[in-house]
Amino acid sequence: MSMFPVYPVFDVEPISAEGAWVMDANGQRYLDFYGGHAVISIGHRHPHYVKRMKDQMDRISFYSNSVPIAIQHELDKKLGQICCYHDFQLFLCNSGAEAIENAFKVASSVNGRSKILTFNKAFHGRTSLAVAATDNPKLVFPVNEGAEIIRCELGNHEEVAEHLATKEVCCVIIEGIQGVGGIVESSDEFLRFLRKECTNTGTQLIMDEVQSGFGRTGYFFAHQYSGIRPDVITMAKGMGNGFPVGGILIAPEIEAFPGMLGTTYGGNHLACAASLAVLEVLESENLMQHAQEMGAYLIERLSTHTAIKEIRGKGLMIGLEFSELVAEMRKKLLYEQFIFTGSSSNPNTIRLLPPLNITQAQIDYFLNGLKQVIQD
Ligand SMILES: Cc1ncc(COP(=O)(O)O)c(C=O)c1O
Question: What is the domain partition of the chain in residue ranges?
């Protein structure tokens, strides 16, 4: 047998890791400024994370949702406290795309509608409705084409208002900050406009915080900069620091009924231990404030580079747009400067998503590597 070859891969295989570093078999270390698609939130093999996972495995790692699972309630309490959505309800699943699919179900259970309004350059995952809502026709196959998708320009009030006025739209879905699209922010004012229009038209507002959530931008969720309160919030990636965990937060007025949503693995003991460990480290190491400070430091240092056309993002979710294509630059960063960075659907933009406990010295290492590459 062989693997179904769907992933373009770099010629570097990390075999061990610690904090913001990954190591290959030759002992070469690489700075991880990408966290494997924004997943590594508290650093590789954080001691508290490793201990909590090991302790959990020594007791029980899995039983299905047909029995009480106390650690789920430990998680919903801690999460409610840290993200400030105390009164919301938590449904746990295993990935970002699964969170999105469930968010759509919840939204349509509220208003009985089926149209989804989404935006240019959006990325919401690769499963059924999630991929239909994603702005990349190459990922969509005939089986995904039945969805009723309305795609609007990000920031275009008139276009959105016109569609919502029909009162036929089930939900608006928008990323806290667009990630795969190249780190593109919506203005606070646009998010407030969406909140108001959704409320006025009985449309559900889903914030996709799969990439921008869990402290990544310096607030727990990126949309919290705007002060809005969505109906449903999706989460994954940094939520488990590498263990597959996804989830949705659901507004208190939305009612569940038995069997409405479900999954075999979602909310298993190990997944909850992973996510609790992440939250405990976010809190004990004050990582949201650290992300704000390190992000500000990084942006300030980057702003002296004339080769960079635009710097976008908040906290430690940063996009660097250049006048030229960045594929070669990223290869040089990896093979010559030993630094992992991320691409995006914008071929001129590099995505930076380091662990939230990245140090200033590690940022300086990145800045030095970038300088060498830009000078070449
Ligand atoms: C904003 C956003 N939503 C959803 C997803 C899908 O997450 P997953 O790959 O865990 O299914 C991603 C993945 O990159 C994402 O960035």
Answer: 16-45+286-375, 47-284
Gap from CA of 178 to ligand 1 centroid (Å): 11
pLDDT averaged over 10-residue windows placed end to end, the chain, 376 residues:
96 98 98 98 98 98 97 98 98 98 98 98 97 95 94 98 98 98 98 98 98 98 98 98 98 97 98 98 98 98 94 98 97 98 98 98 98 88
Specify whether the CB–CB gap between 303 and 367 falls below 8 A. Answer: no
Nearest atom in ligand 1 to the alpha carbon of residue 125 is 6
Q: How far is the CA of 306 from the centre of ligand 1 (A)?
A: 32
Q: Which residues surround ligand 1 with Cβ inside 6 Å?
A: 37, 95-97, 100, 123-125, 175, 179-180, 208, 210-211, 236
Please tell me the predicted confidence (pLDDT) of residue 232: 99
Nearest CA to ligand 1 atom 3: 124
The CA 203 to ligand 1 mean position distance, Å, reads 23
CATH placement of domain 16-45+286-375: 3.90.1150.10
Do the beta carbons of residue 185 and residue 177 sit within 8 Å?
yes
CATH number of 47-284: 3.40.640.10
